[in-house]
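Subject line: Sequence and fold of a protein, written as structure tokens
Enclosed: The protein record, placed directly beneath this head.
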Amino acid sequence: LVNEWNNKAAKITGFSRSEVLGRNLVQDFITTEYQVSVKEVLDNALQGSETANFEFPLYTKDQRRVEVLLNATTRRDVNGNVLGVLGVGQDITERKQVEMEKSRVAKELQTFIDTANAPIFGINAHGQVNEWNNKSAAITGFSREEVLGKNLVQDFITKEYQVSVKEVLDNALQGRETANFEFPLYTKDQRRVDVLLNATTRRDVSGNVVGVLGVGQDITERKQVEMEKTRVAQELQTFINTANAPIFGIDANGLVNEWNNKSAAITGFSREEVLGKNLVQDFITQEYQVTVKEVLDNALQG
């Protein structure tokens, strides 16, 4: 039965001293779900086994929930006989709310990372993988369980890129972040995946560096398109250079920017001699300059 109830207890709960004295603390003021555990703590203290930092909720007179951190101390008379228990509590409601909010945000962030439509991975200060989202697993074929704890650079980056990737990650561990770094990852079945990486420094609540978070973009298809464009451009350039007809080009200012082998053979002017010069002024006779310029100008107008 309650035999001590100070001003702070009254203020927090809304129950005055007179309202609680003589009543059963557990039965009358503790919610059903916590009655067993709170009674156990109090019974232990009555046996001389004290408890520190026990968390439980109290409900106030107006049914608000108050989180309490309790130290249950055995109360004895001058002869050492147990008389009861003295509970010294701390209202940790705000702290618990902050912790719950942090937990919610952390879970939300984890869900975002896991379900993001981009490969996201993390390493600790030793270069070991501690984050590997669903997209990373889908792209590489390596599950989260297969990569966690392994060295990212040594185990998943090809030798030719290990030095450069390690440098990017080491820089991020020093607080120097990197954006748009391209490197290849090889999948479980040895397919090459080109990744565009942003390496971000990961810090704890005190601002200390604890690792790196890498947010990537699978640019394999884009790279393949770029390579195909390059191949076609090179093929076209070869066709132009080796064509059995004179082919030349000018820019918007009328300066020569294309001069194939046949043009050089016919005119005697090499590619190096004509590039950057004005085609009409330097290589067309005066009587035809106006008409040739008109033809080229019309072509420049479409």
Q: What stands out?
A: The longest strand covers residues 65-76. The mean pLDDT is 91. The first helix runs from residue 7 to 13.
